[in-house]
């Protein structure tokens, strides 16, 4: 799992949790300890406007 220093909106605990729980046999995290610590502390979750519901209804 690559964790580049990027927008705080993308560096969330939820994203880190998803990456960890989807790993089947092995997880290698590539990133700085500072980014991982930030993600652990960042409990902000924004509502994503993906348009998925609209696309599925068509």
Describe the overall structure.
- The protein has one domain (2-57).
- 43% of the residues lie in helices and 7% in strands.
- It is built from 3 helices and 2 strands, in the order E-H-E-H-H.
- The protein has helices spanning 13-22, 33-41, 52-57, and strands spanning 2-3, 30-31.
- The chain has a two-stranded parallel sheet.
- The protein is globular.
- The mean pLDDT is 89.
Number of domains: 1
Order of helices and strands: EHEHH
Query: Tally of extended strands?
Result: 2
Shape: globular
- Mean of pLDDT: 89
Helical content class: 40-55%
Tell me what portion of residues adopts beta-strand conformation: 5-15%
C-alpha termini separation: 34 Å
Q: Could you outline the blueprint of secondary structure elements for this entry?
A:
Layout: E1 2-3, H1 13-22, E2 30-31, H2 33-41, H3 52-57
Parallel strand pairs: 1-2
Briefly say what this structure is.
With about 60 residues, this protein is mainly alpha-helical. It is built from three helices and two strands.
Identify the notable features of this structure and list them briefly.
58 residues, mainly alpha, two-stranded parallel sheet, 3 helices, 2 strands, globular
């Amino acid at each position: 799992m690559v964790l580049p220093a990027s927008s705080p909106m993308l560096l969330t605990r939820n994203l880190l949790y998803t990456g960890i729980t989807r790993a089947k046999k092995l997880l290698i995290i590539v990133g700085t300890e500072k980014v991982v610590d930030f993600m652990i502390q960042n409990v902000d979750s924004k509502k994503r406007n993906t348009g998925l519901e609209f696309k599925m209804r068509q």
